[in-house]
Amino acid sequence: MSRKIKAANLWKQAWNLIFAGLNTPGHPFGTPSVATCGSDGVPRQRTLVLRNADRASGSLRAYTDNRSIKMTHLAHAPRVASWLFWDPESRIQLTASGPTLAVPRTEEQAIFQSLPKHSRRAYATELPPGTPTSQAQCGLPATWDALSLEETDYGEANFRVLETRIHRAEVLQLDRDGNVRLVAHRSRDDWALQWVVP
Ligand SMILES: Cc1cc2nc3c(=O)[nH]c(=O)nc-3n(C[C@H](O)[C@H](O)[C@H](O)COP(=O)(O)O)c2cc1C
To answer: Of all protein residues, whose CA lies closest to atom 3 belonging to ligand 1?
Structure first.
């Protein structure tokens, strides 16, 4: 059963959802699940906040702590991250994966300097994320509340911007009249779109 949908239109709809995720608080595309794989072959996924996206270069960005396990995963070839988005309203799932590159350090520093104190918390724990503790704790210094913005600058050393250059993406749209699935491959500076069986 075929449906009269243009591949370019569904692809555009997927990008519109990405931008809605960036610009609309609470939009489900704003908090994708991002998977990486360890050198032991064990995959690991976590929720991240989508921080930036660029359709022209096909890139997605998130912020993280350099000491986290995802960064250990991405330090080794093939340095690929896979992003998973789901929007229940449009019933669209998007997966997007590709090499996850370092952003120039000067750019990271400029972004960190623009962050308010409460946004720096995630990069300011005294011990690396994942360190065992004897009791439940947030990991920030006991003096955190009294620190000035400048006194939280030490978090800059831990702050990283992840940028995935999408090589391959898939859009799945669920529909009672028939689901459809589109594969997008980055070819040179454009996308090659191919319908596949859902
Ligand atoms: C709603 C939500 C948003 C999150 N956003 C981020 C984020 O933007 N960056 C980040 O590093 N961790 C974020 N986290 C925490 C991660 O899911 C994860 O626990 C943490 O990054 C450690 O992951 P890792 O040990 O696999 O590297 C978020 C968690 C939730 C529940």
So the answer is: 48
